[in-house]
Write a structure and sequence with these properties.
Number of strands: 6
Number of helices: 5
Oligomer: single chain
Organism: Desulfobacca acetoxidans (strain ATCC 700848 / DSM 11109 / ASRB2)
Protein name: Putative cytoplasmic protein
Helix content: 40-55%
Shape: globular
Order of helices and strands: HHEEEHEEEHH
Largest sheet: 6 strands, antiparallel
Radius of gyration: 17 Å
Length: 175
């Protein structure tokens, strides 16, 4: 059996395609609205920071963009030149709940999760309630990201990927 590092490297493209697809869907869908099973719709927006990478064997080029949405045009140019997202800042909204996070393509690791939803403060008196509230927020975001990845895989592994989704992504890149 191959070791974990080899598997991560071999399937790294899947995480990069997932981030590209999330970016596309955030801009192609009305208000970035994604309908997922077993949860109310989630609005997805790409934040103000992303890292794109390209590598051909020993040569590796990285493009880090941080700032306003105008930077997204430069990032799209990077996509057209063969760079793929390695990290992307995302904003998720579901009802009144809102989360911000960075998603890493290679491992699908969630970094820097921030929630606007917490009603419990981190004071000394109620550390336990604060801890459980934070764990609840992590669980909710994990559930949403699992649903988004499942939706991506359903499309990616179907004939619709080549016939419908890829042409839409190509059109989006050209705009």
């Amino acid at each position: 059996m191959r070791d974990l590092v080899e598997l991560l490297f071999a399937y790294r493209f899947l995480g990069r395609e997932f981030l590209t697809w999330l970016w596309f869907r955030s801009e192609a869908e009305t208000d970035g609205l994604m309908r997922l099973p077993e949860t109310e719709p989630v609005s997805l927006a790409v934040g103000d920071k992303m890292m794109l990478e390209t590598s051909d064997g020993e040569y590796r080029e990285t493009l880090v963009l941080q700032g306003s949405r105008s930077e997204h045009q430069e990032a799209r140019l990077g996509l057209r030149q063969g760079k793929l997202p390695e990290e992307m800042h995302l904003k998720l909204t579901r009802g009144r709940d809102e989360w911000q996070l960075t998603l890493k393509a290679t491992t699908l690791e969630i970094k820097g999760l921030k929630s606007q939803n917490t009603s419990v403060q981190g004071d000394d008196e109620d550390q336990e309630a604060f801890f459980f509230d934070q764990m609840y927020q992590v669980e909710e975001v994990s559930h949403i990201m699992d649903g988004l990845f499942q939706e991506f895989l359903q499309v990616r592994l179907s004939p619709a990927w080549e016939q419908e989704e890829m042409p839409r992504i190509q059109d989006w890149l050209e705009t």
